[in-house]
Amino acid sequence: MNAMPPMEAKTTNPAVLAFVEEAKALFKPENVRWCNGTKWEYQELLKSLVDGGTAQWLNPAKRPNSVLVRSDPADVARVEDQTFICSVSKDDAGPTNNWADPAEMKATLTQLYDGAMAGRTMYVVPYSMGPIGSPIAGIGVMVTDSAYAVANMHIMTRVGDKVLAALGNSSDFVRGRHTVGAPLSTPAMADVPWPCNKTKYISHFPETREIWSYGSGYGGNALLGKKCHALRIASVKARDEGWLAEHMLILKLTNPEGNVKYVAAAFPSACGKTNLAMLMPTIPGWKAETIGDDICWMKFGSDGRLYAINPETGFFGVAPGTSNDSNLNAMKTLHANIIYSNVALTDDGDVWWEGMGEPPAHAVDWMRRSWTPASGRPASHPNARFTAPAAQCPVIAKEWEDPAGVPIDAILFGGRRATVVPLVTEALSWRHGTFLGSIMASEKTAAAAGQIGELRRDPMAMLPFCGYHMGDYFQHWINVGETGGSKMPKIFYVNWFRKSPEGKFLWPGYAENSRVLKWIFERCDGTADAVDTPIGKLPAQGALDLNGLSISADALSELMRVDGDGWKAELPLIREHLATFGAKLPAALSEELTALEQRLG
């Protein structure tokens, strides 16, 4: 792979310089390049990827300044079984994480790291998660030998000299080490288009705020600012400092009178998170704009409310299934300046993926093979990605880079449930809302008929991303609620996926979800009616704006029905799920479960 020329450090920060020198001594790269974050540098990175055979330019008339990258077939997704939380105490990692002893893991990786960048450039990437200088933002310094990772970090974070200037002489930054683990041991050794290693580790050291990644060049394994920093390390930092780092979109809603509310929402995968983040409301006069589509950091402002930033500057989205029908605003974002990974290449130099629309008569698939619709296999990998600048989104809100953040009025939890869970429920309190978040679940596809046993619990959509014991995480949520008191956001549980006994979706979803958001908006103002039920507050009859929507009275009734028997049948499963967290389960959540049981009668 063609290396970019070395560039010297623009910092005198002793902690940063020591970190880089230590990495240089360990990895033994051919040269070191400090990334300055300029547009010129980004273009040089793309050129080096194309020159090295990792990427190819797309047709500039179709996708200006965009490239297609194809990874090694053995390096295509997160490797959750090789993702570790290396806390000092195993108990701090909890039952939902893989734990490894920090000293043992560092010994293992130090051996693998020794000389791992031979013949390669070590890039030093200073990056800010969130607007530079924001009191909610955080800084990291990452070293890597992957130009692909650096180019993606350019899109996903704020990179370069301005970050180092903002850091000054502080030692409060996340230290990230990443290598693809493919040294070019001799000058004559030929490189490959996608260097990686069969051995892979993504290790987090919460106490020392470090990330050590080895062997993979793909996605969140290599873009250390993404899930590694923004969730696994940040969630621990948030616990220690009294704020929240969450796997949530942030949406700005404006009603016809010009009043604004901000909503954060957590959903497991395949529940329409990006679609909701870029919603196009169907109710006249209502407007929705995007602040963020994936990660939300919230800290208390001077007025006692929670203020949120999107710590990212881009969208690292799953391409298959994204279309003009499912998410027009996402498609409009993808017109130029995109890094596409593992999608298909059409004969006219454009991209295509499953669900995008009419398939091409012929294409080259993600594994560089000839493909036609008769091939009997997907043209794109199911985890194929686009990396897109958030600023290109046609509905990006003007506040999305406000260093002060935006005040959160409501938090939504949700899952994919064919039965039991109504369209929308308002939590009775912050504590009850925390309980609802802790039992969030989606049905596996086999559960379309509603076998309750086929549920996959994903508390707050944080199961793969919480950097510490989830029992402590739930307690942290309760503590934050007690700190904020009456100024905390209202919590709601939504379910767009309820089905009829015949297996048909009862609610149209997508843009029509704006009708549910309108009720939530009005509940925050105290202007919409609700009825009390054993599971929480539901919209009163006529409170949901259904003007112009064709939906039967029977379907609406089923969407709003509290299935008492279904909830009672689920109580033992909830109890079993909460028991996973052992002695660290907050007493408050056990009490909420008992209270629900009593209300159900």
Describe the fold and architecture.
The chain has 601 residues and is α+β, with helices and mostly antiparallel strands. It folds into three domains: 14-52 and 75-243, Phosphoenolpyruvate Carboxykinase, domain 1, CATH 3.40.449; 314-392, Phosphoenolpyruvate Carboxykinase, domain 2 (Beta Complex), CATH 2.170.8; 409-600, Alpha-Beta Complex (Phosphoenolpyruvate Carboxykinase, domain 3). 27% of the residues lie in helices and 22% in strands. The protein has 16 helices and 32 strands. Strands 1, 4, 5, 6, 7, 8, 9, 10 and 11 form a nine-stranded mixed sheet that branches. A six-stranded mixed sheet has the order 15-13-14-26-30-27, sandwiched between helices. The chain has a five-stranded mixed sheet with strand order 2-3-19-24-18. Helix 11 (430-438) packs across helix 16. The longest helix is centred in the middle third of the chain and has 17 residues, at 225-241. The protein starts with 13 loop residues before the first helix and ends with a helix. The model is unreliable at 446-450 (pLDDT under 50).
